[in-house]
Amino acid sequence: MDKKRTINSSVYSPHVKKAIDFTFQYLNEELSLKRITEYLNINKSYFCKLFKHHMGITYTKFVNELRIEESKKLLLETDLSILDIALSLGYNNPNYFIKAFKEQLRTTPLKYRKEMEG
């Protein structure tokens, strides 16, 4: 993903850098705050404050933004269904995927696909 190339590890704390690397590695899996804080072996509240301070957004929003960017590629480059795309990106609930997509892009995945192809 393009965003990864712009991440400069010297700017972020080691915990945030590790969280970002872990997120890219496991983007298509469940990425809860519990999982990331267990991986980093730090307190959830501390991690949330640290991540927001360095990134300017919450960890959950960061994950959703990355997943939506990846979903845009899948919508245009494959014939996968919305359900298959949602599941392939770690969304257990396709309705949540559609909601997150619409929140970020102001359109649904299906409309996005049709608009970009047409």
Structural features:
mainly alpha; 118 residues; 0% strand; 2 domains; Arc Repressor Mutant, subunit A
Quick overview of this protein structure:
70% of the residues lie in helices and 0% in strands.
| Span of the ends, CA to CA | 25 Å
Q: What class would the helix/strand composition place it in? A: mainly alpha
* Tally of DSSP β-strands: 0
Into how many domains do the coordinates divide? 2
What topology emerges from the helices and strands here?
Blueprint (H helix, E strand, L loop, with lengths): L1 H4 L8 H12 L7 H8 L3 H12 L3 H19 L4 H7 L5 H12 L3 H9 L1
Protein name: Transcriptional regulator containing an amidase domain and an AraC-type DNA-binding HTH domain
GO molecular function: DNA-binding transcription factor activity; sequence-specific DNA binding
Keywords: DNA-binding, Transcription, Transcription regulation
Structure, described:
The chain is an all-alpha fold. The chain has 2 domains: 2-60, no CATH class; 63-117, Homeodomain-like (Arc Repressor Mutant, subunit A), CATH 1.10.10. The chain contains 8 helices and no strands. The longest helix has 19 residues, at 59-77. The mean pLDDT is 91.
